[in-house]
Design brief:
- With 377 residues, the chain is mainly alpha-helical.
- The protein folds into 2 domains: 210 residues, Citrate Synthase, domain 1 (Orthogonal Bundle); 97 residues, Cytochrome p450-Terp, domain 2 (Orthogonal Bundle).
- 60% of the residues lie in helices and 3% in strands.
- The chain contains 17 helices and 3 strands.
- Strands 1-2-3 form a 3-stranded antiparallel beta sheet.
- Strand 2 and strand 3 form a beta hairpin.
- Helix 2 runs parallel beside helix 16 and helix 5 packs antiparallel against helix 6.
- The longest helix is centred in the N-terminal third of the chain and has 26 residues.
- The protein binds s-citryldethia Coenzyme A (SDX).
Length: 377
Amino acid sequence: MTDKGLEEVVAASTRLSDVDGRAGRLWYVGYDIHELAARSTFEEGVYLLHNLRLPTEAELEELNERLVGEREVSRFLAELMPTLAQQTSPMSMLRTSVSAASAYDPDGWDDSPEANERKAMRLIAKTPTLIAMYHRMRTGQEVVPPNAKLPHAANFLYMLSGQEPEQEDAAALDTTLVLYADHTMNASTFTARVIASTLADMFSAITGAIAALKGPLHGGANEEAMKMLEEVGAPERAEAYVKAKLARHERIMGFGHRVYKTEDPRATHLRRLSQEIGERKGDPRWFEISAEIERVVGEEKGLHPNVDFYAASVYHLLGIPHDLMTPVFALARMSGWTAHVREQYADNRLIRPESEYIGPRNQRYVPIEERSAQAAR
Ligand code: SDX
């Protein structure tokens, strides 16, 4: 009997993150997510995951300058983007762009640890630019170049809207990026590590990770949760909506988790942000609908919200288009994915699990003429 979905199977050793699903705890390199959410930034988390320690001010400043300097995308990608903007979905654009980016990466053919570190920083720096450029093009708006004065999260909101974001909005987005940055052996990270374990290159591994994240059982859940909030429309309609959905044996997107058997610690912060931003912007409705859905799902199924549920209302309130919510998840997780790929390369063994055969045995080969004759009888 297999561990269907590899539940509780330990697939790798890592120094990057750890989860205690029963206690609802998450750590990046031993630092509790509650502390990082309250006190760190996305860039500091990039340094932590890629160096296994927190940076000094000088080290963080140097990383910030490196990331800022790598935000522009190649002319090749800029010329590819109009077609992608018209023809593909956001996650398909991201998967295609990252794969195409390898063609013009200065370290394209170099798989040394030093080159992979540079590729990782470039992927982290460029992902926001790709998403924002795609959105501006598909909506017929001028592309907004990166603003070197703005940090990662603020710059993304700036490139998306063309306006410098309010400080509170930028800080809120930055906190969500910290929360989304890494999460042990989730499906997309595992995909990246499997690809890296064959010694395929960093771009191949990250392309695979993006492909895995796209699914609604994984990263696609935040966009699906936002669709649900819109369908419910008002807090008083949540109970009937959820009960009807459960009666049809449908999944409530943004709830449940393979590992957490109690509250996802990231949801704690996202719930607070949803309420705070909703109140600050005079639009508490999305939090109120979310809270009602959470109440009913808890009562009916005993399930807790995961990272994607309240992320939906937070991203909506920050003006992020609903179909860009999973790409924003990818924007943050680019930090963890690339760190895991580097960790896999550093102490690699091909990842090749077993399978349990449940098909027929001892089959005798019948020539096709006989097979056809038998079928005709
Ligand atoms: C992410 O792994 C990670 O760390 C991922 C992630 C990360 O940071 O990388 O945390 C990000 O992907 C979060 C999850 C986002 N996905 C969703 O919100 C989709 C909805 N959730 C479910 O599909 C489900 O909870 C999973 C996929 C997340 C986990 O599923 P499991 O562990 O395979 O659990 P299961 O499908 O075996 O369900 C167990 C029971 C079932 O009931 P029975 O059929 O046995 O009666 O719980 C029920 C399920 O029906 N159930 C749900 C449910 N999730 C589980 N019922 C309704 N709605 C749900 N959301």
